[in-house]
Write a structure and sequence with these properties.
The complex is a heterodimer of chains A (344) and B (171). With 344 residues, chain A is mainly α. Chain A has one domain. In chain A, 65% of the residues lie in helices and 1% in strands. Chain A has a two-stranded antiparallel sheet with strand order 1-2. In chain A, strand 1 and strand 2 form a beta hairpin. In chain A, helix 6 packs antiparallel against helix 9. Chain A is globular and about 65 Å long. Chain B is of the alpha+beta class. Chain B folds into two domains: 11-45; 65-158, 2-Layer Sandwich (Alpha-Beta Plaits), CATH 3.30.70.3270. Chain B is 25% helix and 13% strand. In chain B, strand 2 and strand 3 form a beta hairpin. Chain B is elongated. Classes of the chains: A mainly alpha (344), B alpha+beta (171).
């Protein structure tokens, strides 16, 4: 544990998590509004201005930030104050931690090259449920409590199939370390097809994306919050508590995009170009940029789904999780195992 | 006998139930809207309201205006037809006497825009073409009730000359 190592790690944390991910999360709030509006033939927010510049509404995240910092932090009567203030942190911190094992570039360009990689992500993302349930329970509100119950049931159910979906990837690439998985995706199938996760596990990708979006509690799976009708676990939160819940939700969009890009789209791999990631120089820059592009694309894709699909009913969510996704992911594992046993 | 139209349910076959092809169709629609509006802004229907105002249709009934004669005096002869016709009872007239052949004129002519429903009955009842709702001015909200009570001067300020024959005779 030398000083250089500490400084390098701090630099990576600063660069990847604080600059790329958090700012991207803030921009995603803008993307979400703007995208929903132009899908629905509207213009979207464009009124926040600085010195007469409006920049297509890009200043709205700043306005939101100022608003949430200055608003009153309301605590409902009878609420458990400690847990009430801790719950947003419980939602936010695990999401930020999950970025630690995502390799955003070749070689050392990962904050922590854990061997347990994906297992760490699952373990840490499982903590997200605490934020939901504590937030709902500590509010001392029936609506929030019911929302938290819905959220907990939904997240626990989808955690199962999300984990099982990735087993196929583990089997194909023979590792749970994200760095290894990305490295293995540099191989070519039959000499020309990049062996990306989506090529070898197409069903796994679809199932993973569905399960991950349900895990993230965003539309079409947004029953734990259901902003407009059934109101959810953070109904009692105002100001920064609410903003933290929202920020963690948008960060989770990025986490899902990062994990999906890493597992299924070859991470920083550019097809047919430097699969070992040892070239350095401009090629490394291009690889990092390509990873960022994949993440942005997958964020955009999740937004498109979010603004296309109407919300599920609660029993539909549960039956989709347990009766469809779970058997399909088990079948996916079985098929992968059979193919691997026959081919390899 | 009422005709019953039986609505055909879409077939719930495996393709529909697997849900992914239908999702794909929906994604194509929202994706098309996204790219068309992003690149060309063709489909966008928003008008930037305070800066860009949409024109009212020609028969829009806005604030009342009181018309004038050639000599500039108010055309109203305080006959009370408008306030009688008014279903909202929002017109209050106090008649006064004048010395020419018209005999009467309104000393006060108040329209209460809180009560007014902009039905146009006053305009139709008026025999003198004295009151019209075609000013095109929208009734704006106000902070006090008094501001909504528009008197003769306010209504005349929106008005203009009318050369129709006094008394509303048809030719």
């Amino acid at each position: 544990m030398t000083l250089t190592f500490v400084l390098l790690t701090l630099a990576k944390i600063l660069g990847f998590i604080l600059v790329f991910c958090v700012i991207l999360a803030a921009i995603l709030t803008w993307v979400e509004r703007k995208m929903s509006s132009i899908i629905q033939d509207r213009i979207g927010p464009n009124r926040a201005e600085i010195l007469g510049f409006r920049a297509f509404g890009l200043f709205h995240p700043i306005a939101d930030m100022i608003k949430s910092f200055t608003k009153e932090e309301f605590v409902p009567a009878g609420a458990n104050k400690t847990l009430f203030f801790l719950a947003p942190a419980f939602a936010l911190v695990p999401t930020l931690c999950a970025f630690a094992v995502v390799p955003f570039g070749p070689g050392d360009l990962v904050i922590s090259n854990l061997d347990s990689g994906m297992l760490f992500v699952f373990a840490i993302m499982g903590f997200g449920i605490y934020g939901v349930t504590l937030g709902g329970w500590a509010s001392n509100s029936n609506f929030a409590m019911l929302g938290a119950l819905r959220g907990a049931a939904q997240m626990v159910s989808y955690e199962v199939s999300m984990g099982l979906n990735v087993v196929g990837i583990f089997a194909v690439f023979g590792s749970v370390s994200l760095t290894h998985i990305v490295g293995a995706q540099g191989h070519l199938l039959w000499g020309w097809l990049p062996m990306w996760g989506i090529v070898v596990q197409p069903l796994g990708f679809v199932l993973f994306l569905v399960a991950a979006m349900a895990e993230n509690k965003r539309a079409p799976f947004d029953l734990p919050e259901g902003e407009s009708e059934i109101i959810g676990y953070f109904v009692e939160y105002s100001a920064m508590g609410f903003a933290t819940f929202m920020l963690s939700e948008f960060l989770e969009v990025i986490v899902i995009a990062c994990i999906a890009a890493t597992l299924f789209f070859g991470g920083w791999q550019i097809p047919w170009l430097d699969p070992t990631g040892t070239a350095g120089g401009w090629i490394t820059v291009a690889q990092v940029a390509f990873f960022a592009f994949k993440v942005l694309f997958l964020c955009w894709f999740q937004m498109l789904i979010r603004w296309t699909v109407p919300r599920f009913r609660y029993d539909q969510v549960m039956s989709l999780g347990w009766k469809v996704l779970l058997p399909l992911s088990l079948a996916n594992i079985l098929a992968t195992a059979v193919v691997l046993a026959l081919v390899v | 006998m009422v005709k019953v139209k039986v609505v055909e349910r879409p077939p719930a076959d495996l393709v529909v139930q697997s849900w992914l092809p239908e999702l794909w169709k929906g994604m194509k629609v929202s994706g098309r809207h996204f790219f068309v509006n992003l690149l060309t802004q063709k489909g966008i229907v928003t008008s930037q309201y305070p800066e860009v105002k949409r024109a009212y249709p020609p028969r829009f009934r806005g604030k009342h205006r009181l018309m004038r004669r050639e000599d500039g005096s108010v055309r109203c002869v305080a006959c009370f037809m408008c306030s009688t016709a008014c279903p909202a009872d929002c017109i209050r007239i106090v008649a006064g006497q004048r010395d020419d052949e018209n005999e009467k004129f309104p000393v006060t002519f108040e329209v209460d825009f809180i009560k007014c429903v902009f039905c146009g009955m006053c305009e139709e009842a008026c025999p003198c073409d004295a009151i019209r709702l075609d000013s095109g001015v929208h009734r704006a909200p106000a902070y006090t009730r008094k501001e909504e009570l528009n008197g003769k001067e306010d209504l005349l300020s929106l008005g203009s000359l009318s050369v129709a024959r006094q008394g509303g005779e048809y030719k």
